[in-house]
Design goal:
7 helices; mainly alpha
Length: about 190
């Protein structure tokens, strides 16, 4: 089974990112295939756009935190509904809110407010993810546009069926560095 970016051509990588996992040549275990796919895509991102990878991982972390907050405050709300305010206070204390001197209505109000805020945050993040998902519909077009820019910049042809995906990722990284350097130089003028 293919498990590394270096085992793919650019064309195969684009097919893989577009959802064609038959390229992986793995049989059966879809979990293992999904993990290998994720690792290959992250390997490409790390090479081509390390800053973007950090941003992507930060968005994932924010989504996980928001999801956890929704779960924690939903649990607290359920406990408050059952009049288990001492347990709610324990959870809030573990969360970092000292609620020992609060009356039951303040505890419940705080839980409701925190749950609403966590749900809004989660909804915003998921809305952004849906927009990003919609943009993924154009993956092939985006790679074509990027490849055209690379060919114009480096003044040579790129054959997606023969160029290794790792080499392409390194070209993208170099291109991004050159563009960033040009923009910095232009600002200094």
């Amino acid at each position: 089974m293919i498990e590394r970016l270096e085992q793919l051509t650019l064309s195969q990588f684009v097919d893989l990112v577009c959802g064609d996992t038959t390229i992986m040549r793995g049989k059966g275990n879809t979990d293992k295939t999904a993990i290998a796919l994720r690792n290959i895509v992250m390997e490409y991102r790390n090479i081509a756009d390390p800053g973007g990878t950090h941003s992507y991982l930060q968005r994932i972390e924010d989504w996980i935190k928001a999801k956890i907050e929704v779960i924690v405050f939903t649990m607290c709300l359920n406990l408050a509904t059952l009049k288990q305010f001492s347990r709610v206070r324990e959870v809030l204390a573990a969360y970092g809110l000292s609620s020992s001197g609060w009356n039951d209505s303040r505890v419940e109000g705080t839980v409701n407010a925190r749950l609403s805020q966590a749900q809004r945050t989660l909804d915003e993040i998921e809305s952004e993810n849906e927009k990003a998902e919609a943009e993924r519909e154009n993956i092939r077009a985006q790679f074509d546009t990027q490849t055209a820019a690379l060919m114009a910049n480096f003044k040579f042809q790129i054959d997606p069926d023969t160029i290794k995906a790792t080499l392409y990722a390194n070209l993208v990284a170099r291109y991004n560095r050159e563009i960033k350097a040009q923009m910095t130089a232009m600002r200094k003028k």
